[in-house]
TrEMBL record:
Protein name: ATP-binding protein
Keyword Thylakoid carried by entry: no
Location of the IstB-like ATP-binding domain: 104-229
Gene Ontology MF terms: ATP binding
Gene3D superfamilies associated with the record: P-loop containing nucleotide triphosphate hydrolases (3.40.50.300)
UniProt organism field: Glaciecola petra
Length: 283
């Protein structure tokens, strides 16, 4: 009876291989270095995994940007920090972003940034810049909305005989308002002295539900703080006070061009449309 080694040698001879240089055959089987090859395979596998993770992360970030409804031009690189109020606002904004590195800070309670000041001061731009940074660095889900647009959707949703699915779309948006990590509400009470009572209750309840879920908000308004309390009502204003609040006042000059200058520029280079609260950009 042939031994195992004899059978192996016979097999190698049949396929034309040899174990040692002195054996018959036409090729030497190299010694297999298990540790070396295992380390090589692990390295290649880790590189492939990291590549897939980067690609997956980039896709997630792109989806978050797409769902946020933010103006892509609202970034810090496009800001002109030519006034003290803008410089202070940017400093506070960067501190707010940096604080997200601490999970305990993120999960401890809800935070609210309250931007107030006249038109064209750059409030929406800086809020958008904060949101873009949070998406890129922490994959924070963001939703930017103008308050009046939400109130209009809410009003139209009551038409139950309508065939445009307004009520369904409003329910979907309302759920997004509750779920996103950062909600930016712009033009709060614009051109209105006081919100209607039912709108006050709706907004107050929205803010309180988000606070209970440790969700952050940025509110942007043209009112000063005293007028804002009157405009949104005490219940809603008390909802804001329950947050860890950062109040940022914009007092500098308007960054928007005079109307006559805009007309001249539009004739030279037509734009795609009106963009609210967008400030001048660096060239």
């Amino acid at each position: 009876m042939k031994t195992l080694q004899e059978r192996l040698n016979e097999l190698k001879s049949n396929i034309g291989l040899k174990r040692h240089s002195g054996d018959s055959g036409n090729e030497v089987i190299p010694e297999f270095d298990y540790k070396k090859n295992r380390a090589l395979y692990d390295k290649l596998a880790n590189e492939d995994l990291k590549k897939l993770q980067r690609e997956s992360q980039q896709k997630r970030i792109e989806r978050l940007h797409g769902r946020s409804e933010l103006d892509p031009k609202w970034v810090f690189d496009n800001l002109i920090e030519d006034a003290q109020d803008v410089q202070e606002a940017v400093s506070i904004a960067r501190s707010f972003i940096a604080a997200h590195k601490d999970p305990k800070w993120r999960n401890s309670r809800s935070h609210m940034m309250l931007f107030y000041g006249d038109y064209g001061r750059g409030k929406s731009h800086i809020a958008g810049a904060i949101a873009h940074e949070l998406i890129n660095k922490f994959e924070t889900s963001v939703l930017y909305r103008q308050l009046q647009t939400l109130l209009d959707m809410r009003l139209f949703s009551y038409d139950y005989q309508a065939e445009d699915n307004a009520s369904m779309r409003y329910r979907e948006v309302n759920q997004q308002l509750l779920d996103v990590d950062l909600l930016i509400l712009d033009e709060v009470c614009v051109n209105e002295t006081v919100l209607k009572k039912n709108a006050q209750s709706w907004l107050g309840n929205l803010l309180r539900q988000r606070r209970s879920a440790n969700k952050n908000c940025i509110l942007i308004t043209n009112h000063n703080l005293n007028d804002l309390e009157t405009a949104i009502g005490r219940y809603c204003f008390e909802s804001i006070r329950e947050y860890e609040t950062y109040q940022v006042q914009f007092q500098g000059p308007s960054r928007r061009k005079p109307l006559t200058q805009q007309i001249v520029d539009n004739k030279q280079a037509p734009t795609s449309g009106y963009q609210p609260n967008t400030i001048s950009y660096k060239k």
